[in-house]
Description:
Layout: H1 2-44, H2 48-63, H3 71-83, H4 87-99, H5 105-117, H6 121-134, H7 141-154, H8 158-172, H9 176-188, H10 195-205, H11 210-237, H12 241-271, H13 275-287, H14 291-301
Amino acid sequence: MHSKQINMKIRFLIQVIIIVTIIQSCRSSSTVSKISEESEIAFKAGDYNKALAVCEKEISDKESKGKSAIGPVYVGAGKAALELNQLDKARKYLETARSISYSSPDMYESLAKVYKNIDNLSKEITALENYRKFYPQGEKKNTIAIRLFETYVESENWDLANKLWPEIEPQAQSDVNLLAGYLVVNRKLENTAGCDKIAQQILKLDGSNVTSLEWYAEKYYWKAENLYLSEMKAYKAKRTNSQYNRLLKALEQVYPDFRKSRDYYLKLYKIEPKKDYANYLGNIFTRLDDKEKAEYYYKKAK
């Protein structure tokens, strides 16, 4: 009987300890929730200093005891620091949240912004990809997809950019920069069939878009130049009447294409007088037998 009473007392004490622990845990969670809520209210009101201060106090209190704050507090601090352009601090808090295995759309979005601001393209791509991996239906999924496409173009990941394009295409129909990026992707992948269509679409939106003008300028230049060289080589190898007639027929295509290329390069040169453009113009005017203009642009190309 005595043994039973002892066992009952022990069980009672254990139950009391469990209840106290649960109550303390609830109080702690409630406190943290209030901290996160207070920080979020300040953040949404644009009071980023207060939002940061609230979170940093909780972080300092926890870390002074050798513990970590919970993920939302670190993310709240990171978001506020980011808005205040305190990039080192923002990075530290957001990476801490990730290191304690916390995950949220805000965390990955904010990390991506931090990495963009410090020009760490590879880490920005990873953060964007993780957002899409873990939160495919996240509130910012469209914005994230667009930025990811841009980073793929910047990092010359042509296949990944091309694969992602159908997802952002509906949003890109009136966005010159995205369309220009897609034109670059198609050129690099040698998908030339669609380049004209994309370039035309861009020029309807912006007649001075350099990416599209360069596409047409180079397209007509090399079309004319390659045909000119091949037919001249054939004529020099076999100087017959039939070969000469073939050369004349080829020149009927060559000169109009050189003139088209000339017009595009003149427009490009007016936008920005680059030496590369001047050199092309010198070559074109040489082919068009305008020695004075050819010499003028060759001098500009030096």
